[in-house]
UniProtKB/TrEMBL annotation:
Its main location: cytoplasm. Keywords: Cytoplasm, Nucleus. This is Translin-associated protein X. Belongs to the translin family. InterPro entries: Translin_C, Translin_fam, Translin_N, Translin_sf.
Amino acid sequence: MLRAPLFAATKRAMSTSTATNAFHSRFQQYALQLDATNERRERLVKASRDVTIHSKKVIFVIHRLNDSNRDKIVEQAEKDLAAVRDAHVSRVAREVEGVDYWKLKRAFSPGMQEFVEAATVVEFCKTGKLLTLQQLNSSLCGVKDASGVSFSVDIDDYLLGIADLSGELMRLAVSSAASGQGLEASARIRGFVQALYEGFCLLFYNVDGGRDMTKKVEVMLQSLVKIETTCYSMHVRGSEYPASIVDS
């Protein structure tokens, strides 16, 4: 008479143990997936940091530019930018695939913004024009992600990178004025940044991390004011003194 209850209890215990093991196994799988994602995120953070560091070096090269070495400096900056793309942006691309691009975007977005800033300042110094998103991504067509698809910069990182461009152009305008290159170079930069700021003011664009964009547009206005002040001071100085003194 005791065997039936004992058998039932044993069966229930075995069933509970099986369910517990299945439950434990499932969470072990989740743990492995989380560990893999976290490791990938760490690799992306490191790759993004390297993109940022080497993109800044490209910008530093551009700030050595003057009328006598323009072609040489632009050529060197283009080579350095290509090296950043091939050695570091490619590392980012290899870690992202499909939905992972958006899931892990915050890990590498700062590096992409800095890369956009470097690429656009080089393009401006070369042609006086804004590098478009299509042109930028065309230059990345040889960089493949983990699935073999061409890597591309998204519109959010592109706009945030361009917003930072104004600061570098402000430094170029001020350095041009300080080195005695005349009003023309600074005035050209002023017109470009004015158009850039007007374009951003017309945009009602909710980018990923809208507060970042708001802050960057505020900084853009500050940079524009500094450029305009520099141009105004040069114009007033030129009207008060002979050209031979102003250019000296």
